[in-house]
Amino acid sequence: MHRELHGSEMLRARYRASAALQRTSGRSYLELEHELEPEIAGDLSLVVHFFERLWIAVDHHAIAREHVTRLFGSTFHWWYEATFRAQFVPLSTEVSRSIQLLREWMVRNASAEQIEEWRSSNEQWLHPINPAADGA
């Protein structure tokens, strides 16, 4: 899964989706679904469903859980703080609940040092999308 997250297809999808989210800050994913170009909506869906699958793998012990926070924590933290928390989790869908459960698991299983590293290393990248991000 780590290779997939950092592979060329997912990198392109992540960058295009994040650029689109910068232009549409404040609207829910449900609203954005109707506003984004189909290709960009597909990119966003690719990112969201990657993290949904990561949660399912964690929840069902289908991944080496002891490595998840180190391999995925920083990238997931950015997506959660930049957009998932405000624009997606409040929708209360099965997928958004999976994202929230992954976040809770990550925080419970990461060290305090890891969490601080996620916050500090992502701080400069959060402000363009979510100026009110407090990093929590």
Structure report:
This protein is mainly alpha-helical and 136 residues long. The chain is 74% helix and 0% strand. It has helices at 2-5, 8-23, 29-35, 38-59, 68-88, 94-109, 112-126.
Strand coverage percent: under 5%
Give the % helix.
over 70%
Mean pLDDT: 89
Rounded to an integer in angstroms, the radius of gyration calculated over CA atoms is: 14 Å
Task: Please state the overall shape, judged from the principal axes of the Cα atoms.
Answer: globular
The biggest beta sheet reads:
none
Unreliable stretches, pLDDT < 50, 5 or more residues?
Answer: 131-136
Q: Return the structural class.
A: mainly alpha
What does the oligomeric state look like here?
single chain
Report the total helices.
Answer: 7
Strand-and-helix sequence, N→C?
A: HHHHHHH
Number of strands: 0
In whole angstroms, the N-to-C terminal distance is: 25 Å
In short:
This protein is an all-alpha fold. Helix content is 74%, strand content 0%.
Give the SSE layout.
Layout: H1 2-5, H2 8-23, H3 29-35, H4 38-59, H5 68-88, H6 94-109, H7 112-126
Helix pairs in contact: 2-4, 4-6, 5-6, 5-7
Keywords:
136 residues, mainly alpha, 7 helices
